[in-house]
Amino acid sequence: MYKKLCAFIVMIAFLGSTSFAAVYDAECLNTKGKMAECKVAISNNTVSIQSKRKRDAELNRTIAGQKISKITEGEYARRRVGEAVAGSIVFLPLALFVFAKKKKDQFGIEYTDENGQAGAALISVKKKYGIPLARELNSISGLEIVFDDSGKKKISKKELKRRDLMNQPMEATAGSVQNK
Fold first, then answer.
1. Per-residue pLDDT tens for 143-156?
2. What is the CA radius of gyration of the chain?
3. CA distance readout (Å), 115 to 87, 112, 118, 149
4. Which member of 84, 127, 157, 166 lies 3.0 to 4.6 Å from 120 by CB, making a disulfide possible if both were Cys?
5. pLDDT band of 41, cuts 50, 70, 90
6. Mean per-residue pLDDT for 75-101?
7. What letter does residue 21 receive in the DSSP assignment?
């Protein structure tokens, strides 16, 4: 009886840990070229971006993992998103200078929506949540994170290790993360 109870508890813990969504407090680029607070949730092979304010409702979107065409990180993310939406946002070049010092990890997600239109989202999270978010994005899309080193003369070993961690796939038994 004791063995069956332990097996049942382990089974529930395993199944329960894989069914939760990962939720991240983040900042997302809105159509006015400013960063707005948002929540990024990853579950069931989708990325859901929800604005915390009603006036930034244009940020709200759900992106299917298989519809993601490219994921970029850092300076390259800002430039790629800028190229992707430059025609629709007039003030975007000003917004690209918001991240002068990198205290956060920025991710650019390029995707195709349900109407076949190309879209892009720029997400900024605290540096400590960058690796888990990158792994989740890697896991649902099957794509590796693209980095740009054209402006750097030398990349530190610490940064190279972070990049390796970002492109490692999530383990199925790891469960998911929720931060607040």
1. 988 876 555 566 77
2. 18
3. 19, 8, 9, 34
4. 84
5. very high
6. 50
7. P
